[in-house]
Design brief:
Order of helices and strands: HEEHEEEEH
Low-confidence stretches: 1-26
Pfam families: Cytochrome_P460
InterPro entries: Cytochrome_P460, Cytochrome_P460_sp
Protein name: Cytochrome C oxidase subunit III
Organism: Roseateles chitinivorans
Mean pLDDT: 87
Helix content: 10-25%
CATH superfamily: Cytochrome P460
Keywords: Signal
Number of helices: 3
Oligomer: single chain
Shape: globular
């Protein structure tokens, strides 16, 4: 097999495998979110930035959303719904004043990492998206995951349940 084709297949396999169970028995070695079974994708901290946001009280957070190559291609093409395999990860931190430049707000302590995985068959009952919310690498309880789809679907259904727009 030619090296470029093999590299492409390996990249595709790694992108697909990050959100799905890793063994034939359907059991992942990573902690998975309740309800959806989503895990933290490998390498997500190296993904491209989609956009940033702040959240005022009560959370008082800075947030950055990154997307895997499948999601980023869909964003750039303006393609909705997102294709299967698209993944978005939101990283959140408490806001704090910069000690070097007090007019600036910088990330403080991390709060959550939240994941959306598009798989229209596996997650047909939740608009094609699976959700995961993690604190310190561990999934939070099922009650917190039950609100994910309801909120996304109620507020941004017309954008395939995705809040974050691609930053210009």
């Amino acid at each position: 097999m030619h090296a470029p084709r093999l590299a492409s297949l390996l990249i595709l396999a790694s992108l697909t495998a990050t959100s799905l169970p890793s063994s034939a028995e359907g059991v992942s070695s990573k902690p998975a979110s309740p309800i959806y079974g989503v895990v933290l994708p490998d390498g997500y901290r190296q993904w491209e930035m989609v956009g940033v946001a702040t959240e005022d009280a009560p959370l008082d957070e800075l947030r950055a959303v990154v997307g895997n190559p499948i999601a980023m291609k869909a964003y750039r093409l303006g393609k909705l719904p997102f294709p299967d395999g698209a993944m978005l990860v939101k990283l959140a931190w408490k806001r704090q004043r910069s000690t070097e430049f007090p007019a600036a707000t910088v990330p403080g302590a991390p709060t959550t990492v939240q994941v959306m995985v598009k798989d229209s068959k596996r997650y047909a009952d939740s608009g094609g998206w699976g959700y995961g919310r993690f604190i310190d690498g561990q999934p939070v309880d099922a009650a917190q995951h039950q609100t994910c789809f309801a909120c996304h679907n109620a507020l941004v259904k017309a954008r395939d349940d995705v809040f974050t727009r691609l930053a210009p």
